[in-house]
Structures are given as structure tokens and as C-alpha cells.
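Lab channel / #folding
Pinned by the channel admin:
"Please post every new chain as: sequence first, then the C-alpha cells as a reply. Keep commentary short and put observations after the output so the thread stays searchable."

First post following the new format, from NK:
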Amino acid sequence: MKQSQLQQAASLRFRRMTRKSYAAFNTLHRVVTIGTLSSLALFCAYASTASAQNVVSNDPQTTEPEKEHELEQVTVTASKLATPLNQAAKLITVISAKDIASAPIRSLQDLLVYVAGVDVAQRGGHGVQADISIRGGSQDQTMILLNGINLNSSQAGHLSFDIPINLSDIERIEILRGPSALIYGIGAFSGGINIITRHDTHDRLYASITAGMHRLREVELRGSSRLGNTINSISASNRSSAGYTDNTDYQINNALWQTRLELGEVNKIDLQAGYNEKQFGANKFYTAKFPLQYEYTRRYLASIRGEVGSKTLRLIPALYWDRAFDQFDLTKGSDIGRNYHRTDNYGVNLAATYLSALGMTTLAGDVRREDVVSSKLGYLRSRPEGHYTRWDSRTNLSLSLEHTLHVSDFTLSAGAMLNHTSLLKDVYKLLPSVSLTYHPTEAWSFSAGWSKSMRTPTFVDLWYTTETHNASGQLQPEYSQSYEISARYRTPILQAHLAGFKTAGKNLIDWVKHNPTDKWSSWNHSKIDNYGIEAGVAFCYGAYLPFLGSQSKLQLDYLYIHQEHSSEKLISLYSLNYLRHKLTARLTYSIGSRLEGSWDFRYQDRVNQPSPFATLDGKLDYLFSERVRVGIQANNITDTRYYDFASVIQPGFWLSAGITCRL
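Reply from TO:
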């Protein structure tokens, strides 16, 4: 062939990613036909970074010479503004939508079981109710966010995960370990979990149907569309089961609407509204004396959040509201011991980020109002409203200032939050934070940090007095200071991390008793110190064993905690009930082009449990096409008898199957 007959194709190499899925191609100013672009955002996720990948254009009209394009690192929301993952000083786990789709789970709570640094104490199966804590903290010390909006329950941490979200909505989940008041607010006493939803139209229609043992039934639908400069989506689901033992039946309904208004290339406004409804048998959930407990909850939420400005100055305003109803029956169907609660949380916050030659400066303010009307919680009302004979409220104000400086291979960040809560009249608390990260190479990073944090008691902590509990209205906020050092290594084939931490807490809020027959009483521990080590490694072996799939990987993670406290003779419900050891292992693989599978293993040793336990879960999907797949899932394959919390038995072997369609 003659040289003139040859057509040249430009080769484009992408080293890094921008914070938007489409931004890799925004600056090309021409049509590029993409051949293969594997391992985009969150390649080999779970605390991973984006990898480089060659992309070859097949456009016959392209005659430009080879070009190289730099893309930013994967960004996470571990600051007021998205930050490259490798610049985050704290240890962050990122779980992608692909990880969620391949995991043998039925809910978000099930998914977090596989994260070694997270303690998921489930009271029922499939996300009915669970206490989610990080690094030896309690469920009330973990901040839960949806697209950066605070969803913590002011009533009790058991309800913080009553979130109106479906698994098909999720783009990724970011789990930040350690006190993070400067980042998320005072509710992030031991860490934060931020759920990021999808804003795209890749799947205009998504449908999933699942059935299984114990009369398990699940239906999930999601639709998305682009109208002008808006991206819109709506999803709904219904999940139910007759239960795996007496009084463990449940029914859960979710609905979520989202709209993103795009104001140019970088500015946007996000609106979201959702509804969550649960009714479930609460067999021994709160006390073993009453096995016929039952609970019915509803939650509404709405928020608007923007990100506007220039590359130099960015403004991030947000306004939100959520309302939660809770009816608890001590004995199902009986008025005796029945409680009614309604909480409202309102919030407004504004963050301003300024980029200069001296680095990035962030100034942020937050106002949050929390109200409750109840039959049990709060002061007596002068005019009762139906079941609501009591009330309480409080306001939290905070102002924070942070500066981040990049010098050569070092990233230094320092700041402080000034906080005031109406629970403490004329008292203002300063919560400083400082961190340093060193990047000697692209693969290696080393970090060290120190910070202070605080948390106010929930309404249940302050007021819940019943046949089995006795609250103290004199509770004080709890405080801590945390120290952490970590080392991380990341390449497209291998990722690893090792971290050591100490969290020194005082006035920690807990429910305790001296003797097994006593009532539970809320009080402040004088001192609890948690020392721990986290380690993990992910090996993407698909590059060496391509017959098992290019995206195949093996993930191992381990957490160890040692606790020192001054309450040796007390029986603790939360703070002293921590995981001493947790080991998780995950193996994903493919068999040919049609079969995809995963195995998930968990080993746990809790200090107040008589013996450790291990569970094994598995999933296998068959791909009829890119749009249709069927799968079978087996949980607790070994039929292990175990307890996450007190005397609440967890599900044994549970088999289910389903079909998923995307259009």
C-alpha cells in the first residue's frame, strides 16, 4: 500500500480525571469516537484513585499528531469543595456504583458490612434498622449525608439511615474515618458517610425485580431525562418480607426525585425531595423483655444546593428540611407503652472558597434548628396536639475557617470551627484541626493529622424514660480529640493503606447500668480512649488473569481497636460495645463474557459477645445483553448463628434471585 492511502488516527492518552464524568472531552473541541476507556472513575474502588488509560480515536477524518491530555485526580467531598482523593489527609473509602451492583446486598446497611472500618450492628435484615458507627464510636457519632446534606436524626441515631434512596440512584459512597467537624459539622464526631447520587441519563429507564426466601419481594424503578439545561430523575421501590423468625417481618417504601439545573460548564443547582416509609417487627430491638415490639416510621426531606462562581471564587449555598414520624409499640397492636414522635430539622449553610497564589481559603457558616413533639420526649406542652403532649427544640450555630497550601510535594491544611449550641447558654467551643500530607511520588502519600470534635445529645438521650430506660436531662455534649497517621500506595494494579489512630474522648454519651436487672440510664462517661490500626490491600489481578475478567480484583481489609476507659464496672449499651477485630475479604471475577460473580467474607470479634463469628455471601449474574441481566444471591451461606446487637438474632441462610433491565 502506498503511504498516501494510509489514514492516520490520533492517539489520546488520559492520565487523570476531572470531577465530571464528561469533562475528559470538554476541551477537545471536536468529535472523538471513543474506543475503550476502562477503569474511569474509581478504578478498583474502595479507597482507590483513577488510573491512566490509553484511548485511540477511530475517526477517519482525524489527521492531528499524537496529543496528551492531563485529567485531574478523582475528587471527593472531604472538604467544602471537591478535593483530589490523593490530597485528602484522612483515610477515605470510596464505593462505586459498580461495586454496589456486584455486591450480594439488599440495602445500604448490608453494603457497609463489608467495610472494615465501619461497624454495622443490625437489628433486622436488609436495612430495617441498623446502628452505623466508625472506629469504635456510636451510631449517634456518625454523620450521614445525602449529596452533602445533613440527614442525621436528632431523635436517635437508629433512625439516621431512614433515607429515601434506592441502590440504582447511587453514583458512589464516600466514607471518611475519624472526627470531621471542620468538614461535615459537629455531628461527624467519629466520621461521616456521604452518599452521592447519579445526575445523568445513561439509563433512561431502570427496572429490577427480586424474590427469595421468607417471602422476600422487591421492585425498583428509576427513570431519567434531560429537558433543556436540566437533568431529572425519579425512582421508587417497594421491599417486603415475612421475616426470618417471629416478628421480623418488614415493608419498606422509598421515592426520590432529583433535578440538576446546569448553569454553564461549572455552575449548577441541585434540588432533591424524597419519602421513606417503614413498618417492621422489632423483635427484642430495644429490650429482650418485650419480643413483640413493633415500629412504624415515615420521613420526608427536601433540599436545594448550589455551586456557583468562578474558578477563583466559589460559593456553595444549601437549604434543607426533613420531617420524621415514629410510632413505637412496646407490644404490637397495644396502646400500652406506645410512643409517638415527630422531629423537624431545618438547616441553611453557605461556604465560600477563594483560590489564590497562597492556596485555597474556605469560610463556611451553618445554622441548624432541631424540633421535636412527642408523647415521651421533652417538656410538657401547655396545649397538647393529639398524641403530642411534649416538646423540645435547640439551635446549633457554627462558623469555620480553613486554609490549604500546596508547596512542592506537601499539602498543609489548618483551620478551626467556632460552635455554639442553645443547650449551653453563652458557651462557644473552638474546634481546631490541622493536617499534613506528603506525596514523594504519584503512587505514595503519607499523612498526619490532629483535630477536635464535639456532639450534642439526641432527644432520646435527654428524655427517653420508660419501663426499661431512664434518661437524664442533665447530659452534657461530648468531646474528643483525634490523632492519625497513615501511608497509602496506589497504582492501577495495587492499592494499599495502613493507618494508626487514637481518639481521646471525654463526657461521652452512653446508656449504662450497674446490674443486668437495672434500667438503662443515659449519662456521660468521664473518659474513653480508642486506639486502633486499619490496614487494607486491593489487588486487581485481572491484568494477570484476563480469563477472569479485566476488572477482577481481590480486596482485604482489617481493623483492630483497643479501648481504655474509666467505667470498668458498668454495662454499656454503645460506647463500650465495640469491635475489637474486623476482617473483610472481597473477590470479584468473570467467567467468559456472560457470567460475573463475587464472594464476600466477614469476620468479627466484639468485646461483649461470647465468641467471634464469620459469614460468607455470594452472588452470580448472567448477562443476556448489556441491558438485561439475571442473578442469584446467597447470604450467610454457612448459616452462621450470630448477633450484632444484644439478643437480636440475625438472619441465617437466605437465597434470592432477580432480573434487572436497563433501557
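NK: The longest strand covers residues 388-407.
TO: also worth noting, Helices lie at 97-102, 108-112, 181-184, 459-463.
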